[in-house]
Design brief:
499 residues, mainly alpha, two-stranded antiparallel sheet, sensory transduction, ANK repeat
């Protein structure tokens, strides 16, 4: 049994001694198994594993861990377990993002949504820890409902349990029971628990008058989530720190009105996020937010740095079915391609182009789209895989057919024209300096492939080979004649020398 298997088995059997032993011998709790899940993620999301979480943290795992593919933070995994000890062991460290959204839900939102009679007491304790460490009770979920609102509408839990939870929220100083759903939360509280003392009706203009920089930041984040442009603009006029985090938050929680407003300010949209270590364009792609991505790509100050590999990132996500509302990776993919701001033949560290990845994921839509935007068929990876070799003959033939177009005139007209597009066959200029590539790479690869060999007779390929031959035929004939004359002179010289 290897170390990773020992680590997984020890977690399943709740054997902390063997778990610690495997870690000390070099097992990696962040390594993913065949299902793409790491031991650290399993420990966080499985109730009763707090000791294993502590061992993972001692071995180098981070309380700020983020699954980059899912954009799911450690705290989101912890609340999946509904084990307050899991939540507590993370929140004891500084800087844990207690309001990080996964699938449009903060940890508090997720707990409130999954609340049931069976898990009520565990959920209550998790909420207690989150509120204690500063989680906002005012952030609405994808249905514009705050955690308190969901608790009030839950008919499964006992009334006494519900009242205990409600008191947890009402004890939070900045609880807002008036802004969301036109004050429905206050109305529910008055109907269900008329004996409770409720906070005074919130006066929005009064709330904006005072507060430290940190308080203003908290208010700003709250108003960003509410997509309240007017209040955000008032707060931003008094906020002197970097405003990029609010633009990022707009992308994540899809507050598009505030996003549009922020784009009109002096925010540097090319700056890399300190939290996510990505640009705002990459964050928009990660969350499938095509609205924000479109706005960013149209922005006159946008400067996409080289080697961001945006197309590579998107192709891996095209088949994902995210639970985020309005999340559309396909639309993001189209926007990036149509923007003309990315190199469709950009290679990653192992020389794979986006076309290589589209073939790897067997995504016909991506293959067609990339070919239509000029992807080079002869691109060769570090492992010598040539892109064209992985494309099905039917798809390739259909694309070659589309590369032959005619103008709108009748064939009988003398101005009737046939246009042939050889873009996918021509070596891109940025690859010409690479000695690994040569002009007829894709043609040679077709000839070497049994399934593609018949396409050498396609009009597009035949005319391309003919044109290439015409381009070099003069040079070929010149060298042939020069070689012939040289050989005649050499033979004559030899005969004269020995005669």
């Amino acid at each position: 049994m290897d170390l990773q298997q020992q680590l997984g088995r020890a977690l399943e059997q709740r054997d902390s001694r063997r778990f610690e032993e495997a870690l000390s011998l070099g097992a990696n709790p962040n390594e993913r198994d065949g299902r793409g899940i790491s031991i650290y993620e399993k420990s966080l999301s499985t109730a009763g594993c707090v000791e294993f979480i502590r061992l993972c943290l001692r071995s180098g795992c981070s309380v700020h861990y983020m699954n980059q593919q899912k954009q799911k933070a450690a705290i989101n995994y912890a609340v999946d377990s509904t084990d307050s000890e899991h939540v507590k062991v993370l929140l004891e460290h500084q800087g844990v993002p207690v309001n990080h959204k996964y699938n449009d839900l903060t940890p508090l939102n997720a707990l409130a949504r999954n609340l049931s009679r069976e898990n009520a007491s565990q959920t209550r304790e998790c909420m207690r820890e989150l509120l204690k460490y500063g989680a906002s009770p005012n952030i609405p979920d994808d249905n514009d409902m705050t955690p308190l609102h969901r608790i009030l509408l839950n008919r499964q839990i006992e009334h006494q349990e519900k009242e205990t939870m409600v008191n947890l929220f009402l004890n939070v100083v900045d609880i807002d029971i008036d802004s969301c759903c036109d004050g429905e939360v206050r109305q529910e509280l008055q109907e269900q628990m008329p004996h409770l003392v409720l906070p005074p009706v919130r006066d929005g203009s009064r709330d904006l008058i005072s507060g430290s920089v940190d308080n203003i930041r908290e208010q700003l984040l709250r108003e960003v989530h509410n997509d309240n442009v007017e209040r955000c603009e008032q707060l931003l006029s008094r906020y002197q720190r970097n405003k990029l985090e609010f633009l990022e938050e707009c992308i994540i929680c899809r507050s598009h009105a505030v996003f549009d407003s922020l784009l009109q300010t002096d925010i540097d949209i090319n700056e890399e996020s300190k939290v996510y270590e990505r640009t705002v364009v990459e964050i928009a792609i990660a969350y499938g937010n095509f609205y924000c991505l479109a706005k960013l790509l149209q922005h006159e100050k946008l400067r996409l740095s080289a080697n961001l590999e945006l197309l590579h990132q998107l192709i891996a996500r095209l088949d994902e079915r995210s639970e985020y509302n309005r999340c559309n990776y396909v639309e993001c993919f189209k926007l990036i391609l149509d923007s003309g701001q990315v190199n469709v033949n950009e290679a990653d560290k192992i020389d794979r182009t986006p076309l290589h990845y589209a073939i790897l994921y067997n995504n016909e839509f991506a293959i067609r789209a990339l070919l239509q935007h000029g992807a080079y068929l002869g691109a060769k990876s570090m492992s010598k895989d040539i892109a064209i070799q992985g494309i099905g003959p039917e798809l390739l033939e259909n694309h070659f057919d589309e590369c032959i177009k005619v103008n709108a005139m009748s064939r009988a007209d003398k101005y009737f024209t046939i246009v042939l597009d050889y873009t996918n066959l021509k070596l891109p200029s940025d690859m010409r300096s690479n000695i690994e590539h040569y002009e007829l790479e894709s043609i040679v690869a077709m000839g070497a492939s049994r399934k593609l060999r018949h396409l050498l007779n396609h009009p597009l390929i035949r005319t391309y080979i003919t044109i290439m031959w015409q381009n070099i035929s003069i040079l070929f004939h010149f060298y042939f004649v020069a070689s012939f004359i040289f050989n005649i002179l050499a033979i004559a010289n030899i005969l004269l020398h020995f005669s």
